[in-house]
Amino acid sequence: MKNLLLLVSFFILQFSFAQEITPKLDRTTIKIGEPIQYELKIDYKEGDKVVFPTISDSINHHIEVLGQKIDTVKTDGKSEIVQHLELTGYDAGKFNIPSFIIKKNGKDLTTKQLEIDIQDIAVDTTKNAIFPIKPIMEEEYSIGDYWNKYWLYGIIALILFIIGIVLVVLYVRAKSKLSGKDSYKTPYDEAKASLKALDAKKYLKRGEQKEYYTQLSFIVRRYLGRIYNFSALEILSDDLVKYVATKPDVLPEDVQKFKQFLFDADLVKFAKQEFDEPTNTSHRNWVDEFVDRVKPLEIPENEDLKKDQVTGEKYKQFNNN
Predict the structure, then answer these.
(1) At 109, is the secondary structure helix, strand, or coil?
(2) Is residue 89 part of a domain?
(3) Through-space distance between the first and last CA atoms of the chain, rounded to whole angstroms
(4) Cα–Cα distances in Å, from 209 out to 202, 218, 261, 265, 273?
(5) Do residues 280 and 210 make contact, with C-beta atoms less than 8 angstroms apart?
(6) How confident is the model over 103-118, as a mean pLDDT?
(7) Cα within 13 Å of Cα(103), Cβ side
(8) Could you tell me the CATH number of the domain that includes residue 90?
(9) Which residues pair with 318 in a beta bridge?
(10) Domain count for the chain
(11) Per the domain annotation, does 240 fall within a domain?
(12) Is position 58 within any domain?
């Protein structure tokens, strides 16, 4: 008798759980790709803990989920939680919607399976001719389409192009300057051209005596260094005067004027001394005359005479008359 009561209680309990879950389809037959509504209801009261199964974008290989949501519905004082699923299928045939397990207050409640019939779409070939599948056609791109797709690469290419143009211009200018410096045939030609360029800068009219004397002394030092083949730019003024004084082709008065010129140039460069216009003119004229007096004479064309081993220039004597 006791076992009979337990068996009856078990069936009553199972029946009550089954009644709590109600799966429903709005229809059981659909065409391929046609949506169908599936509802899963469970009784609910305040305090119950209900967990629905997590459903992805498909239930199985034949049934896909188009959409899903969960609502709470109250009818005649009764509360229910409803899970709505919008389903469809793209294969013809009869397929089962599997059972789902819902947890309610820690207990597993299982739904029953439902079957849907997915029917193929009949095509009347007498009215609608069936043609073979067309090949993939390439879409024609416009200039705007290319710009929208590759605008960043275009901007980068433009920037690189501008940088390239700038580098080419700088290179050509630098090369022209170098070629201009190297185009002088002799140290004399270079010194004369440098003095002319210095006058064109008009440093003295702007009161820039330091820059003027710096460049003027540089021109003289470079000229002497080239014709006598020594490092005139790297030695002190007193040592430079002593070295030039040893040259037999340099006049004694030029040695004294050269010493005074270097002394005055150092005063301007390092002591911020400023001279009047007659003094500046005197130094400028002497430099020009000194360059002319120590100018080497060109060697006439003669294969027996060798070129200078340092400069490669053809000189044999100085004109200091």
Answers:
(1) strand
(2) yes
(3) 154
(4) 10, 14, 14, 9, 9
(5) no
(6) 86
(7) 6
(8) 2.60.40.740
(9) 296
(10) 2
(11) yes
(12) yes
